[in-house]
Amino acid sequence: QELRPKSLDIKQEELGDMVEKEMASTSEAIEDAVRRIEEMMSQARNESSGVKLEVNERILNSCTDLMKAIRLLVMTSTNLQKEIVESGRGAATTQEFYAKNSRWTEGLISASKAVGWGATQLVESADRVVLHTGKYEELIVCSHEIAASTAQLVAASKVKAEKSSRNLGRLQECSRNVNEMAANVVASTKSGQEQIEEKDTMDFSGMSLIKLKKEEMETQVKVLELEKRLEGERVRLGELRKQHYGLAGAYEAAEEGEAKPALAPRRGILKKPPLAQKP
């Protein structure tokens, strides 16, 4: 009893209504998330350009694809739940079926809430990233949370479903699609973060004249230091090669001397006599 979620301390006859209410609430949250992402996309196009616009569009597009995948997942899950109730309730009402299987029902409610919450958090994180007030890591964490809550929803639905159910197969396919889209969000976020960080290191537009001059002098010092170090390394490389060639030449000469000793002339072998000259 202590391990049961405190939010589910309701009458069993209300569980059926709560399942439908939570699924509807999740669908509404996802629709709202899609709408907010579209608004963010329009705002990004008006307020940013260049690399930042490219990064924002790529991240928001991947978030939109993820939301569409989640929406299809929730719809398929709802259809599977209706199938489970219809095939298992017998003469009982829908409310009685949910009450009789209260633990399973509570699992569905919890999983549905987790999916809706994850979608909402993802949109809020994306909004902060686009406005440059949030962290890219937040998007990555939210994507992982959505993948986890999706697995929870599939597991909860699978408990009561028939193995041969078409809706169950569709739900599992939707789950794989959600995971793939979540991975795309992570990938686009990481690549976007790298692009922005690389651009920021070369963005001098906000510097004053004095700051620019100071940065220029410091960079010149670094260039001279690196050139001196490079020249030293080149000299070192040349000496190493000279030593290498010298040792290799001596080693090869020694090997040849050992392998091919001077041949002593054989005794008893006469040289070919010279040809007789014509008179």
TrEMBL record:
GO terms for cellular component: clathrin-coated vesicle; cortical actin cytoskeleton. It is found in: Cytoplasm. Pfam families: I_LWEQ. GO terms for biological process: actin filament organization; clathrin coat assembly; endocytosis. Residues 254-279 are annotated as: Disordered. PROSITE patterns: I_LWEQ. Residues 7-248 form the I/LWEQ domain. The keyword Aminoacyl-tRNA synthetase does not apply. Residues 207-243 form a coiled coil. Keywords: Coiled coil, Cytoplasm. It comes from the Eukaryota. GO terms for molecular function: actin filament binding; clathrin adaptor activity; clathrin light chain binding; phosphatidylinositol-3,4-bisphosphate binding; phosphatidylinositol-3,5-bisphosphate binding. The keyword Transport does not apply. InterPro entries: I/LWEQ_dom_sf, ILWEQ_dom, Sla2_fam. SUPFAM superfamilies: I/LWEQ domain. SMART domains: ILWEQ. This is HIP1R protein. It comes from Pandion haliaetus. The gene is Hip1r.
